Amino acid sequence: MNFVEFGSGTPILMIHGLCVDHRLLLELDQVFGARGGWRRIYLDLPGMGASVAGPGIRSSDAVAAAVVDFVRENLGSRRFAVLGNSFGGMLARHLVAEFGDQVVGLGLLCPVAVAEKSRRTLPPRSILRTDLQLLASLDSHDAADYAELAVIQSPANWERFRDFALPGLRSFDRRAVGRIAGNYPLAVEPEDRASSFGGPVLLIAGRQDHVVGFEDQLVLAGRYGNCTVAVLDEAGHNAHLDQPGQTGALLDAWLADMEGILPPGTSGAR
Questions:
Q1: d(CA 157, CA 242)
Q2: Which of 49, 103, 140, 152 has its Cβ near the most Cβ atoms within 10 Å?
């Protein structure tokens, strides 16, 4: 799989959602870079970004297996953290079940908590602020994609969507993603595979997220003992683009929690 990385220290694997690529999470890198001591690894999942999906990539389980192989080949026995967004949140949970205490901490950003879309508890689609002048100034396809997810429409919010979300939306392999989406649930829920995870967990949801919701995420949080939960208002499925300041503060506190449990002298500990 293609990936880009920055910094050095304790690895933290960043896993994006479906139909986008690693660039969706690059807005967060200023938070991780400011602390230092973290090697940030941004993946392109198979069929997205610059990662090719072979014929064997036909389900979420196949993608999860590919990510597990990536970790084993590139990180070995090193401890690492993982942050997953949307579909990537489901994969991040899978990594915790697979690697257990090798995982320092788990970050979940608008994660998929219920794979079956018909079983999700979702808020109604809502746009809290519409900018018709902005939408009229955009390419029609760009405007449609932006309007589908933007809760607070503004030039600054559009620029974040344009720079971080749109590139992936314009480049993914539709056939490969179609195969994955056709076999979307994991065969076994990650939390049913392993005993409870004791590392710091951060779960951020958007109150206006009509894609995965926020109520199912509150139930999921109950499966993790050391979990901080934040439901951000005026935030949809791209909560980190809608509320970058609040998201950044929560991530910074999560990093501090993980640094507090790393052994003295370990890269990433302060």
A1: 7
A2: 49
pLDDT of residue 270: 38
Cα→Cα distances 129→41, 146, 220, 247, Å: 34, 13, 30, 20
Mean pLDDT for the chain? 95
CB atoms within 10 A of CB 58: 16
Return the pLDDT at 263. Answer: 76
Helices 174-182 & 60-75 angle (0-180, nearest 10): 110
List C-alpha distances in Å: 19 to 22, 175, 200.
11, 11, 28
All structural domains of the chain with their residue ranges? 3-261
Q: Could you name the CATH architecture of 3-261?
A: 3-Layer(aba) Sandwich (3.40)
DSSP-based helix, strand, coil % in the chain, nearest 5: 45, 15, 40
Q: Model-level pTM greater than 0.90?
A: yes
Please say whether the beta carbons of 168 and 48 come within 8 A.
Answer: yes
Contact yes or no for 238/258 (Cβ under 8 A): no
Q: Who wins on pLDDT, 270 or 254?
A: 254
Kindly indicate the confidence band of residue 264, based on its pLDDT and cuts at 50, 70 and 90: low
Whether the Cβ atoms of residue 244 and residue 109 lie closer than 8 Å to each other? no
Separation of CA 108 from chain center: 6
Give the residue carrying structure tokens 């720079």. 163
